[in-house]
Structure formats: structure tokens, C-alpha cells
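Lab notes, practical 5.
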Amino acid sequence: MVGVRQDVTAVGRASPGGRSAALLLAVGLYAGAAHAQTVVPAPAAPSKDSVDAEDAAQAAEDAQNAIVVTGQRQRGSVATEVPPEASIGATAIRALGAADLDEVFEDLSPEINSGGSGIAKQAPAAVVLVNGQRIAGFSSIKDFPPEAIQRIEIFPEKVALQYGYGAGQRVVNIVLRSQYHALTLLGRDTIATNNSRGIYRAKVDLIRINENSHWNIDLDYRHEDPIFASSTLAGPSPSADGVVPRHTYGNQDDHLTTSGAVTRNFGGISAELTGSLDLDAMQSRPGLADEDGDLLASEGLPDLVAGPLTRIDRTVEAQTNLTLNGKIDTWHWSFIGKLDDTTRVTRTDDATKVGDLSAVLLPSPGLLGHRCDAGVDTDCVSTNTRTASGDVFLNGNLTSFPAGPVTASLRSGFVFSGIRSDSPLTPQMAERDRSEGNAQANLDFPITTHASPIGKISAGVNGELRQLSDFGTLSTIGSTLEWSPIEPVDILATYSHQQDAPRLLQLDEGALATPDLREFDYVQDNTAIVQRIDGGNADLQRQTSQIEKLRLQVSPLRSVNLQLSAEYTMQRTRNPIANLTAATAATMAAFPDRFTRSDDGYLTAMDISPVNLDRRNQQQIRWGVNYSTAFGSAHSDSSGNGTLKPAARDQFQIALYHTWRFQDDVVLRDGQPRLDLLNGDLISDTGGTPAQQIELQTTVSTGAWSADINAVWQSPTKADAGLLSQDRLTFSQGVTLNLRLQINLSDQHWLTRRLPFLKGNLNLSTDNLLGAHTKVHDSSGAVPLAFEQSYLNPTGRTFRLTFRKRFR
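Output from the prediction step:
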């Protein structure tokens, strides 16, 4: 392969060197940071008295936030009358044992998401606010340590409209502590029990939060070892020594992120500047096992073998954002400007000519803007995207009604974006530029108050216009109706009709061909070896969605933090954009040019780039409970200098949600029959849509330890196979169970007296404790070759050891 390592940094050779490199990096980061604490004079390390005062302030702040005072708005609250669906306090957040806010969001996915899959899977990401104010995006705070967070509030979609965002997005408000200073070091070692796969992480974060400002710098490195097959079928170009490089079931991944943010107040204006650089490299080796060779021989296609190959996929992304927040009289305003530049380059070559995979591989930032020459680099695919955007938001009271003020949210902005892609599968470079101007308005009208015999009622209307250079005018209109017959009960109905254009990557991402893949052929009812093509589709059209929701939330006990909720969602989409990854009779009849068969009818290739379907209709109900309480007696702890600092009581928190999907049908092309994805039909090679899903997240926290449990279960799905649907495949997932146990070593005085440097947090975790994975069997109970566990879930169960140390 020519030029593979001209723009990458490679260290060593394939694993187990990856483990040594990751551990050495973690130790080096730890030692370097510890040395910096004693050598670097600025910023000065806080004194013991200041640390104790900060701890006391934290405990007092936790206690204050645990008491909700009626009629008094808490610090950092969202400016809305809509009650939060859930509020998670500082003790419960720290009990998750997460490394950063990114992992906190993963653990709280049952609360933040709205169903786990199906409709929720298509929903846009939640809007994130900080202290009730707009920010450039979650990426600007995702590296914050959990200890820096005072509480997390989750709101329904109506609040997103009030902050100038689109309908269908939930809102998560992050309230930071008023004072927090720390240098946090993290080292993590994860092992997969099925195959001894190593997964490692080293992270350094320096953060300082004051009442009106904060800044942070973060360095985060992650590495995953590859998983090699036991044997590999020799390809058309055997090596000189006769040794066949083993193909991979699991890729090797290296990821390095450097990021920073600073927020300062200038008079009455709060300004935040953020920047990040992400370097990603993925190494894989496509190939076939011996049993795949027997399959191809039986089909008369022995020449279809292409591997083993070596693929190196590198991505560099640079971001910078500027956010301004201010106030003019009673009106709040904000400006958000974003710049993003991303380049992805994928190279594929004969594995016998490349050698071993590199133990650590990271692209150079100089990869940005790199393009392949499709006429020369026949093994290279590249995609470059650039985006510059800005918007201005204004929120305030227009006038007053007898029931209260009429509030308005106005936003206007622009987006300039472009994409360039090169691929040997396309005759010429794909190039597209898009310019967009947009404007959005939302008005909320109070109709009655709680003093009315019928309770409090408010109504809202919203609309958005987007003018795109390549798709013309797109519109969104919607309305909301909120009714609270009594204070503990809130009923919210929303309606939205919106038009969306395909994303640039969906249109013009570079086409990439991957040979030697197992796919199940639902027509022939057997496993096929295929070449799969994915990328963009320049012929995509706009899609139109109509979404209706009805939500009920009840807080039955005034003195107890208990919320009961139920939400009905109906979504009807015309021209939905989807990737068809299942080779069924229906998908092949609707898109025959996407599938290739041999003269004997065996499937040999499939194109899974996105297409427009005719329509899709979905309905679901999701209900659940969110409860938290303190238990045990309040206790105090001496700081060692005579200061007695208050400590929060022990905490218990649980969130339990059940989703029932009772409609998910799709029509692939106009005039074709309706497919019921809940009852035997499918468009994805992972099965249909599960009708039932249960999600659990619970934590218990004490001063010395905390535990967190996450569990997900979904009902099995069925899929018909064979020309006459004579066979039926069953897809079952089981229970995915994740456990976290966090020990506060600072409270283990018998240990820290002997080894003072061990003061910190030790986290013992296991992901997928029960070894759950998608299990597929046919009517006879046999597992088709395409659905073996080594292909569907090569990692399996993992155990993880994490040590976090804070210097303050």
C-alpha cells in the first residue's frame, strides 16, 4: 500500500503491544500530572483549608438542592413553566461511577431517550443547556467530571421550542457546581472474557469552575485490541512464506481527543469559546474462514474470495465554537457560531503485502483536507466535509394576558456547508455545496391559571422556514397544548409537521466496497458471501414527518421525589430515508438494482447506501417511574483541622420504563404491499422491531461506596425466510445487564494511612454480565452461519477496572 503511513503515527506492532502502550501512556500521564502538581507554580495548588471549604460548600449545596422550595427558582434552572420529567442530584450522578459527562449520559439513557429504538432511534439528539443557557453543543462539556455537576434536569420537547430548537428534541439541563477546581487522572483496563480482548483508556482533565466563569482542558486516549479469527481462507495472492494473515472479527480502534473550553463574563454578557481535535484510526482485516470456502465451493463461486485484506480507516475532526449569552431588559438573547472540518480516508490493500497491524495508530492533523485521486489510488476512498453556521436567539415576554405573560422565542441563522468525496467506484469526484438561511418562531399563550376551576391551561404555536440552495424551501409547523388540572398533574399534547432534507453525508459520502462478508439471503434461506457497498446516494429526496404526542406526568406526593409518566407517540413519515440491509423478497422487488446474483441465483453483492421509501407509520406507548430518596441518618465528618463539614445522607434512585410498540409498518414503493415490522417482516439484517422493551437504571450511594445497575430487555422478533416463507427465523436478545461498583478509597483509612497516594475512586464494572447478544435460529433450532456469535457480538462480556484520582 502506497502512502499508508505518510500521514499517521504508528507505534510498535500488533497486540499485545497495544496493552503495553496504553498502560505506559496511562502511567506516564499519571506521573506527569503528579509531577506538575509539585513543580508547576501556576495555577497554584489549593490549600488544605480551601479544599475543605470547597467540600463543605459542596455538601451544603447538595443539601440545599435536595430541598425544593415552592415558588423559588433554583440556581441554574431552565426558564420555563414546564416541569422536568426527571431531576438527578449530585449524589446520584457521582454514584454512577462514570469517567465523565459523556458516560453519565450513557448511563442515564433510559431517562434521556424516549424508547430506546424504533421511533426514539430516529429522534434527533437531546438539546443540552448549561445552567439554563444555550451552548454550542454537548461536545463542549462532555469531558466534564461528574463531580463538577450539581444536578441534571430532563424536559420534554416543548422546552426545546422555547429555546429555539426543533420539535422532537428533548432538553437536558446541566447545572454546574458554583465552585469546583480539580485535576482528574483516569486509568482504565477492560478485558473481554470470551477472547481476552483488551480495551484501555487514559484521561487527564483540568477544570476550574467559579460562580460566573469556568474553563477546562482535556486529553483522552482510548484503545481497543483487534479480535483475530483462528484460521483464514487463503486468497488469490498468497504470501511468499505460505502464511495466511488471520482476518479479524473485531476491529482495532485508537482514539485521541484534545479539547478545551473557557467561559467568562464581560459585563452582562457570558462568552464561551470551545475547541476540540479528534483523531480516530480503525484497523481491520476482512477475510473468510475455512467454512466460508466450503460454502463458496458448493455454490460454484470459489473465485469470489478477495481477502484477506488490510483496511485502515482514519478520521480527523476539528471543531471550534463561540457562544454568547446576554440580556436586554427582560429579553434573553444568545448567539452561537460553529466551525467544523472533518476528513475521513479509508485505504484497503492485500494483507499479505502490508504486514501486521500497528499496535497504536493515530492520524496526523495534517490529514484534514486530504483527498484521494480516484484515478490513481484505486484502494483509497476519502470524504471531506466543512460547515460554518451561526444563529441568533431571542426570548422574552411580548405582552400580558390575565393568566400571565405571552412568551416568544425567535431564532434566525445561516449554515454554509460542503462535501467532497473520491471513490474508485464513481467515475468522478462528488462535490456539493449547500447554503441555508433559516428562521423559527414559537409563541406560548397562557389561558387559565391554577386558580381556575379547570386548572392551568396554556397553548403554543411554532413554525420554521429553511431555505436550502439544493432543496428549496422546507417548512415546519406545530402546536402545543398543556393542561394541569391540579398542580401534581401535567398533561402535554404536541403536534408537528416537518420537512427535512437529506444530510450531505447521506447524499455524497464516498462509496466504499467491503468484500468477504456473510449476509443472510432471506430469499434462498441460506448464508451468502457478498461484497457490500455503502456510501451516499445523490438521488435522495426530502422526507416529510407528522408527529403527534400526548404525555401525562404525575408527582403524586408533594414531599417525595416521585414522578410517574406515560407518553403516546404516533409518527407518520413520507419518503423516509433508510438503509436496507436485509436481502428479502420485498426489498429486492422494490430495489432490484441494489442486489446482484450469480447465474445460479446466489446473492453476491448488495448496495446498502440510503434510499427513500414510500412511507412508514409507527405508534408506541412508553410509561415509567422515576424515584429518588435519601435514607439513613445525616452524618458529619471532621476535615482534620477542626472544621466540621456536613455530608449528604445516603441516596437511592431508580428509573424504570416500559415501551410497547403496537405499530411499525412500512411501504417500500408505491403500489407494493405493506410490511409489518412487528410481525415477520424486516428491512434490517438485525431483525424486525421488538414490540416490548424494558429499561432499568438504579443507583445506591453511601459515603464509602456506590453501586449502579443498568439493564435492558426487549422481546424477540420473527422473520420469514424462503421463497414460500416456509422457514421462520427468531431473533432474541436476552437481558443486557451492566453493573458498576465504586469505592471511595479516601474513606478506607486503614489503606490510605499506609498508602496515601491511593486516595481516589476505584471502580469495578462489568458490561453485559449475562453475555447477552442477538441470538438467531431457524425453525429447526439451527444457527445460520451469518448469525454466529463471533460475527454479531465478538466482544461479549467484559470486566473493567478504573482508577480515578483527583488533585485539588
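Observations recorded by the TA: Confidence is low (pLDDT under 50) at residues 1-52, 66-71, 637-645. The radius of gyration is 28 Å.
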